[in-house]
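Question thread 4412

I'm putting together a teaching handout and wanted feedback from people who do this every day. The idea is simple: show students a protein as raw sequence, then show them the structure tokens that encode its fold, then repeat with a second protein so they can compare. Below is the first pair exactly as I plan to print it.
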Amino acid sequence: MKYVMATHNPNKLLELQRILEPLHIEVTTADLQEVEETGTTFAENAYLKAKAACEQTGLPAVADDSGLVVDALNGAPGVYSARYAGPDATDAQRMDKLLHELDGVPAEQRTARFVSAICVVYPDGERMDVEGVCEGSVAFAPRGHDGFGYDPIFLVGEKTYAELTPAEKDAVSHRGKALRELAARLEERHGN
């Protein structure tokens, strides 16, 4: 079975392919039109992207919307995680903005979670939704060299996502949890 992933982020595609590989499900990308993320939740934005990708390609489409929710910032950056420091900001600029806003906030008040909502939309209109959450906190400075986005400042235990190997990250991450749930649901659907 072939699915298209609604993303321009090669890192998200690699995570999805790693976890779905045992199911022999082919996941590809396509030259898709950008979808405006007008939803107020991660799940709404994932659905908007999956629906548009399915309509554009005629294939079952998978989309993820995820972000960092920081308690001391009343849930920010939340659904605006990718656009937090402006639409063309780099990962480093987004992290700098977040760390600046948390300046003076002690470690015990830097609790946060990464949330990943994944939606699959099929050409017949059927829809499947899963969500994964990883609790952690925000570090005082970036650490590690792997990962992307906010990975260098998101702590799970003593390590940031960026200090974990891909396998370690997949085992604990919000997206890893959501993708394992998705894999189980797809396995039921396809009888693999």
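The second pair follows. I'd like the answer to focus on this one:
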Amino acid sequence: MDCKIIVAMHKSCEVPVDPMYFPLQVGAAGKDVLIPLNRKEPVARDDTGENISEKNPSYCELTGLYWAWKNLQAEVIGLVHYRRYFERQDFSDGLYHLPIDDILSEAEAEELMERYDIVVPKRQKYYIETLYSHYAHTHYREHLDVTREIIREQCPQYLDSCDRIYRQRYGHMFNMFLMRRELVDKYCRWLFPILEELERRIGGENLSAFQGRLYGRVSEILFNVWLEEEKKQGKTVFEVACIYIDKINWRRKIISFLRAKFLGKKYERSF
């Protein structure tokens, strides 16, 4: 099985040695080549072939997804980040490994694809927030309101799933997945026209650089909408835990979450 998982990256770091992983410099347009810390050759770039590399400041890792959709020939395509991967499934050796060595292997990915249609990150729970209210408190609610209107106009059969996902208190986030090429094609054909219309209607020029990443963030919720429809059609979905290569400042993240919820303080940095 020809399986390739895009590793979206924008700075030099260690990359997996497993040949299944395909490091890709996202937002490469106008940038110098990117050489991983554990390699001597630069990685592939998302400004080659058919691409939207210049949209990376607002589309985030989606410029990598677009590039893979248009240019990468593989039976199975996945997307992860240089700081966040799917965790390996076999811990039977009982040994300690560095995080970069505890990621999903090619053999495990192939086994999962033999059994399931779509692999996603384990659901992230918000408890006191819905996906809609969390986005509204940390970013701007009109982004999701306009998105819903576009769905109503372009693909009204998804509207019920959209409303349901907006009300959920959990989601499969980070724009991470693993699925066969035909499903990637179906997803991208649905996703990018919605984002293009959203971009046409709301722009984003007056937002800070952090808040300007809105199309990448909205797509995290849209993925859940699309996934809901695929499950209705009988597609099987399997959740895999994420492993973080860098440490997360959980204290700052939790405080910022509560400040956004109760004090209206929107996010202006990552954690």
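Top answer:
Good format. For the second protein you could add a caption like this: The CA atoms of residues 256 and 267 lie 7 Å apart. The chain has one domain: 3-263.
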